[in-house]
Write a structure and sequence with these properties.
Elements lengths: L4 H15 L3 E5 L10 E3 L3 H7 L7 H15 L1 E8 L6 E7 L4 E6 L3 E8 L5 E4 L4 E5 L17 H20 L5 E4 L6 H15 L16 E4 L4 H4 L1 H16 L14 H31 L10 E5 L7 H20 L4 H7 L14 H11 L3 H10 L33 H7 L4 H4 L2 E4 L8 H6 L3 E2 L2 H7 L21 E4 L8
Antiparallel strand pairs: 1-2, 1-11, 3-4, 3-8, 5-6, 6-7, 9-10, 12-13, 12-14
Helix pairs in contact: 1-3, 4-7, 9-10, 12-13
Length: 496
């Protein structure tokens, strides 16, 4: 880890994310549902996890043990107890190479032996050690980490780096051979080597002309950096290391082929497939190994972490759109609105304006599509006073003789329009429209909400405070200002 920058960067990102995770203690609910749990804010186990020992913070402790996990697939915690009381006082991270399990043919494991810095052997019981591991296929008592699969590649990467450094230290170019036609005695050999090093060794003496005498002959053994392909070797090593950890490239700060879309995808992969499984192993160790050490006081308690996986806004928006479409189809098929919402798992939403009678609003929508004569009869029942029919122009119509069949007068051309004029214009109420700037930098929530209409300014400003900036814009998470606005329909350029 200390000699490979890619390995260091990967482990540093992972341990930092683990250390920043928020942990809470809960009292389990009988229903088994997480939302029914009650948070416990005061308990000795919670205090111990926040302050593992007097020399380390919680972040120091989790970072140190997670480094061991990434390097060798093992985490070892040693628990110390209060004198005279079997109650955990401190927990300490221990180097995996200093711990040795003690197998048993009857109980599988009877304890552990810790080897101190000066070589002393300290026996530890199973209640004094908490062991977290990634199982090894060869040893049921030990673990295996990603680095064990990379040892040869890490050695090759280190060797190439050392060759580059030696290349500049020695002569700034690969070496050659000095040939002589006779055997040199010790004094002649030492004199030749001293004079050659004085004249040609080191970067400052690179490419100096060599003067050979006494039958000396230079035989070039030059290999260029291109021949050795060290640059390609180091790049391949980086890819292999990332592959072993399943680490997304953008999380290492690479920006050569990264845009916002795959950066968001990389953040999701990092949290979902690297951080969350590691937190889950720690959570199980806390609940199954640490809490039982507190006896009855910890019965029914459980540790849990804040989920690091970001919400998939695009998937949530797609699901909401699909559910809304299902409700529309159900209502068009004759289903009652609130029941259709419940059928697809959406909350009950009142129809029409706030405080309006949903049944009345539904009848209004039906009347808008009804013939004028029927509308004239239904509207008064809904509480709308229709204007009196206009007086006929011209002389009064002649009274027909008894027995003469009467002709029905044709309706006024504007009668139907007059009946519908009494209806509230529901569509016109939705006058506040979202306007988003659409380009390659537009996030998915802003793109999906572009063109949405709101009934009132209050509704619009709830999502766009002050008329600008969508509250669900992803750009804010990256320090970018949202460019969306909400405008009132009306005259162009007037803001209405």
């Amino acid at each position: 880890m200390g000699s490979n920058s890619t390995l260091f960067a990967i482990i540093e990102r992972i341990t930092t994310a683990i250390a920043e995770t928020e942990w809470k203690l809960y009292r389990s609910a009988k229903s088994g549902l997480d939302e029914d749990r009650v948070e416990v804010t005061s308990h000795a186990a919670l205090d111990l996890w926040r302050h593992p020992n007097k020399f380390m913070t919680s972040a120091d402790f989790t970072s140190a043990t997670q480094q061991h996990d990434e390097l060798v697939g093992e985490q070892w915690w040693v628990v110390s107890y209060r004198p005279g009381i079997k109650l955990p006082l401190e927990i300490w991270p221990v180097r995996p190479d200093r711990m040795e399990p003690v197998p048993s043919k009857d109980d599988f494991l009877v304890g552990y032996v810790y080897t101190g810095p000066s070589g002393e052997k300290i026996p530890l019981g199973t209640d004094e050690v908490i062991f977290i591991r990634r199982p090894s296929p060869l040893d049921p008592y030990r673990g295996m980490g990603p680095v064990q699969t990379l040892l040869i590649d890490l050695d090759a990467s280190r060797a190439s780096a050392e060759w580059n450094a030696t290349f500049f230290r020695n002569s700034a170019e690969p070496g050659g051979v000095l040939e002589v036609d006779k055997r040199l005695d010790d004094d002649e050999f030492e004199e030749l080597r001293a004079r050659w090093n004085e004249q040609h060794k080191g970067v400052s003496n690179a490419n100096r002309v060599a003067i050979l005498e006494g039958g000396l002959k230079w035989v070039d053994r030059k290999f260029t950096m291109r021949d050795m392909q060290f640059a390609e070797l180091r790049e391949v090593s980086r890819e292999i290391i990332r592959e072993a950890f399943g680490f997304p490239k953008p999380m290492l700060g690479a920006t050569d082929d990264v845009n916002r879309a795959n950066a968001e995808a990389a953040a999701y992969v990092f949290a979902r497939w690297l951080i969350r499984p590691r937190l889950e192993r720690i959570r199980q160790a806390l609940n199954s190994r640490l809490l039982p050490l507190y006896g009855a006081t910890a019965r029914g308690l459980e540790f849990d972490f804040t989920n690091p996986v970001p919400d998939d806004r695009e998937a949530d928006a797609a699901e909401l759109t699909a559910r809304a479409g299902a409700v529309k189809l159900l209502v068009e098929a004759g289903a009652y609105g609130p029941e259709a919402l419940a059928a697809v798992g959406l909350p009950e939403i009142p129809f029409g304006q706030p405080g309006a009678d949903p049944d009345k609003e539904l009848l209004i929508d039906l009347v808008k599509a009804a013939p004028a004569a029927l509308a004239d009869r239904i509207l008064p029942l809904l509480g709308y006073n229709l204007p009196p029919p206009p007086a006929p122009a011209g002389p009064p119509p002649a009274v027909p003789e008894p027995g003469t069949p009467s002709e029905e007068p044709e309706p006024e051309p504007d009668a139907e329009l007059g009946a519908r004029a009494a209806l509230p214009d529901v569509a016109a109420a939705q006058r506040w429209v979202v306007q988003a700037v659409i380009d390659d930098n537009t996030c998915t929530p802003c793109r999906d909400n572009d063109g949405r209409t709101y009934r009132s300014r209050a509704d619009a400003y709830r999502d766009y405070p002050g008329g600008e900036g969508y509250v669900n814009c992803v750009g804010a998470e990256y320090g970018n200002e949202c460019r969306c606005t909400v405008m009132k329909r009306g005259r162009k350029g007037s803001g209405e």
